[in-house]
Design a protein that fits this description.
By secondary structure, this protein is mainly alpha-helical. Among the domains are: 41 residues, no CATH class; 123 residues, no CATH class. 52% of the residues lie in helices and 5% in strands. It is built from 25 helices and 7 strands. The strands form 3 sheets. It has a 3-stranded antiparallel β-sheet with strand order 3-5-4. The protein has a two-stranded antiparallel ribbon with strand order 1-2. Strand 6 and strand 7 form a beta hairpin. Helix 6 runs antiparallel to helix 7, helix 7 crosses helix 19 and helix 17 packs antiparallel against helix 18.
Length: 526
Amino acid sequence: MRLPLSFRPWRYVIVPGIACLLAATTAVATSAAPLVVTATGSPALSRSDIAWLRRDGFGLDSATLARYRQLGRRHFLDEQLSGGDSLPPQVAAQIDAFPVVSTPLPALLIDYRDHFKQYKNTPAGPAKDAAKKVIQKYRRDVYLQAAQAETLHAIYGSNQLKEQLVWFWLNHFSVYANKGPVRVFAADYEEHVIRPHALGKFKDLVMATLKSPAMLVFLDNMHNVKGKTNENYARELMELHTLGVGSGYTQQDVQQLMRILTGAGLLPPKFAERAMRQRPGFVRDGLFLFNPNKHDDGNKTFLGHAIAGNGYAEIEQAVDLIVRQPACAHFISQQLAEYFIDDQPPPALVDAMARTFQRSDGDIAAVLRTMFLSKAAAAPGGHKFKDPMRFVVSAMRLSYDGQPIPNAAPLVNWLQQMGEPLYGRITPDGWPLDSASWTGSGQMSKRFDFARVIGSGRNRLFMGNDDQAGAANDPRPGPPDIQHSALYRDAIAPRLSEATRHALAQAKSPMEWNTFLLSSPDFNYR
């Protein structure tokens, strides 16, 4: 299949068997037909309404449009910022069926250790080779379950602002699944660390990530003990998670924070509860354990403040100092505005968000309210190019419009192929979310492949592990009928550029039409 050469402002280079989309340096064409009353008689949404909704959520679906029309923008935003979320019953049951979601974390960790112990104790030879395959499959399955759970939440979650924010914080407080048992902790990290705190106080979110097994393992604070320190987490906590580079802290502050964090680690496999009774100062929360015997209890000076040796309370005091810094308010506001609004958001907006952050004691929902009630949030003609996660989720929401899929594994694989696998960033800085990082020719080629697969309906989304079509969807669905949907007519068609309209008119089949739409500049920019 070849994409129409009339598409602009993208250039298309035809290589054997594939049409590669190359992002042009010019902005997306903004000419579009005027909005009209919808076919159902509902008032048409304005261009600013659509622009606002495309920033608010991963992508549009019919349920979102209906709720927005019912409540209006402010009440719709209020409802989202309240933090509630829900899933279709079928999708909720699908996620709950994953062992990494339904099994208590201590049991998952024991199972992980048992697998590796069995492999380690297997003698060399054919049995060792077989054991290696078993543990490789175990590792793949654990990761795939965690990644599917988050992907399904992103696609089907009713509170799309919260779903975007969960993904944003997962990337901001990034962990790498391939390091030790992190993959075992990944589903819990999303469900019980990030999600409950995504719209709360920033300090609470930082503390939740600090105590999470995934972060303790990934950034090595479980190895940060008195007499054998490790500054990895202390450094990244300030540089990547809270203050940012060049915000005024020093290497001395890093070393002092490292001392403060000594003793904060993972519950040992055979930890004796009586040890906690024999000496005060132990703090346990799930698999997190603060061990006063491993803590440097000397006095410290951190960010210009004296912190007396006081065990676990030092950590709370240090985090409180960090999040109250003006640099923290500005850094987090800048990161949020770059993700939701534009790669170069208006400085006045970032300043207003930072003031809200400081005035509200780091209330994330309040900061988002300031951002989403700004003119920038509803400005049409955005130049923000979707990263792969946004692209995949928005394509699924438009194409299937709430229809559950029995198998989300292909989506996880497609994200890997497009270079942004969930929990797959080796370095702790998270995936880049600026437009320039995702507009290379290789990325565009993969993106077109995905558009073609989803647009054709010939994918494994409705197949089970036994390669049989799901009973509820038998026979397997054909191409999604995007073109004739009310969602397309109401929210997509009115804002298409003439170039995209011309390209769609050349489609020779529903599959081609879907492919051209999903790979168009109009769909890939927001």
